[in-house]
């Protein structure tokens, strides 16, 4: 199969959706948008979309295909971007190397 056909097939496959629900009362839009940008940059060819969903009451939840991978109250605050990238990777492609994100903390 040539590269053009492979690319056409890959672009037709459904790709996962990530949803970040953030509290508008707490003004967490910028935090949610920053995390969305980081995920889209790292997983640019693997994601169908990253959606920002406004909420209230201190909510901050990140889901991959409706599976909660981070919840602010349950998980003890806000995640760092490294943790979120690792959790998304573990859900989408566990064998994938995230480069410096995976090596930070293991060296030295």
Structure notes:
The protein is an alpha+beta fold and 108 residues long. The protein contains five helices and four strands; from the N terminus they run H-E-H-E-E-E-H-H-H. The chain has helices at 3-12, 29-42, 72-75, 81-92, 100-103; strands spanning 17-23, 49-55, 60-64, 67-71. Helix 2 (29-42) packs across helix 4 (81-92). Pfam families: Rdx (PF10262). It comes from Methylorubrum podarium. Keywords: Redox-active center. This is SelT/SelW/SelH family protein.
For CATH, the homologous superfamily is named as: Glutaredoxin
Number of DSSP helices?
5
Shape: globular
Low-confidence stretches: none
Q: How much of the sequence is in beta strands?
A: 15-25%
Cα-atom Rg, whole angstroms? Answer: 16 Å
Fraction of residues in helices?
Answer: 40-55%
CATH architecture: 3-Layer(aba) Sandwich
Order of helices and strands: HEHEEEHHH
Number of strands: 4
Which fold name corresponds to the CATH topology? Answer: Glutaredoxin
Task: Give a quick summary of the entry.
This protein has 108 residues and is α+β, with helices and mostly antiparallel strands. The chain has five helices and four strands; from the N terminus they run αβαβββααα.
Any chance you could write out the topology, listing elements then pairs?
Elements: H1 3-12, E1 17-23, H2 29-42, E2 49-55, E3 60-64, E4 67-71, H3 72-75, H4 81-92, H5 100-103
Parallel strand pairs: 1-2
Antiparallel strand pairs: 1-3, 3-4
Keywords: Redox-active center
Protein name: SelT/SelW/SelH family protein
Pfam families: Rdx
């Amino acid at each position: 199969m040539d590269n053009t056909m492979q690319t056409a097939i890959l672009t037709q496959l459904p790709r996962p959706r990530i949803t970040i629900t953030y509290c508008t009362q707490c003004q967490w839009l910028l935090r949610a948008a920053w995390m969305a940008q980081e995920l889209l940059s790292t997983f640019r060819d693997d994601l169908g979309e990253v959606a920002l969903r406004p909420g209230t009451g201190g909510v901050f939840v990140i889901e991959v295909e409706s599976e909660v991978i981070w919840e602010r109250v349950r998980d003890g605050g806000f995640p760092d971007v490294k943790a979120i990238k690792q959790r998304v990777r573990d859900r989408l492609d566990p064998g994938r190397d995230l480069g410096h994100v995976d090596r930070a903390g293991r060296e030295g």
